[in-house]
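Student: I would love a firmer grasp of how sequence relates to backbone shape in proteins. I am handing you a single protein, as its sequence and its fold in token form. I am told such tokens are a discrete way to write the fold. I hope you can help me see how the letters and the tokens relate. Take your time, and here it is.
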Amino acid sequence: MIYFDAAATTLEKPRQVREAVAAAVGSMSSPGRGSYAAARRAEETAFLCRSEAAKLFGITDPARVIFTGSATHGLNIAIRSLVKPGGRVVISGLEHNAVTRPLYVIPGLRTEIAAAPVFDPDAAVEGLAAALQEKADAVIWTHVSNVFGAVQPMERIADLCRRTGTPLIVDASQSAGVLDLDVMKLQAAYVAMPGHKGLYGPQGTGLLLCGREDVIPLLQGGTGSASRLQEMPGQLPDRLEPGTHNMPGIAGLLAGLRFVHRMGPQRIRAHERVLLEEAVREMREIRGVRLYASDDPAAQTGVLSFTVTGWDCEELGQVLAQKGIAVRAGLHCAPLAHRTAGTLETGTVRLSFSAFNTREQVRRFADVLRRELREKVTL
């Protein structure tokens, strides 16, 4: 199988990740629940994972690295902490349902979309500046579009938020592990990310990086600390981590973070950019294909959406799957991004690359697409 769906999950993991998950299942219990070896091993692994993430993302205190089940989980915590009923929030025109659905259920909330063309960072900044002329509870901005790979100008976005005193929540689902991300430099209130995409960890893992401590728990429960209290402990990370930790996932995430650290996000991004450029070259020669790509290498990660004239995207995705090529077709849980790009009615087919893909795989995919289009025309 040629796997081009890394924006959903990096299915191909480093060997060390698989080994770490398997080892944790038989050797770790829960951190903070005892002084026996299995609990101590879990406690040390959790601390090392927080520390590795803190080092990678510019966090000075590892306790501000919170384990979540997904980026969606972290975004819900961040939104609950900052956005209030009857308030106002500003978001980009590229947000995922992980942002828009939690906002939708907040009573009386005014959500303003600072929409801009997909690959136009200047317009994005101008749109946010106009929206922040009125006070907002928070700005929520995706670092990279999961549909188009469009890189947003986060430093400029963060600067606008600082100047207006508006807390910033960053969805780093598509940028963590691929782009340099310094939370302290951005001074973001919260940054949410999954463990199973660019960090090469297992599914069911994620991180919430907390730039502030006035955070409201999403769940209540046992933490292994301050057990007499009936409210959640005040200190991080315990305040946001009730229940039993996913130690196999955390152990795998630690191995994934170490893999990213060794390779370096810049090297991973450069590799994915080579694959993106190869795909664009190949596909521009195929009649009927429309690509959503930027000519600026800095404006796009290794994510490429396309449509084919006369071919339903979901149908094409199924045909490619039958040929052993895994892609994502449809609206990608991001109807707002498709509305911004004008593809809401059709959706797109999305290729998304990882450190384990090759140029040869891109060329084989392009050959399959050519053959399928020829056969469709002759039918």
Observations:
- The domain at 2-10+265-373 is CATH 3.90.1150.10 (Aspartate Aminotransferase, domain 1).
